[in-house]
Amino acid sequence: MGWRVRVLAPSRLLGGGGDKGLIRITMPKAPVGIVTFIVQLMRSVGLAPEHIIRYNNEVYIVLDRGDVPKAMELLESFKKLIERSTRDLR
Question: pTM for this one?
Answer without folding.
Answer: 0.78
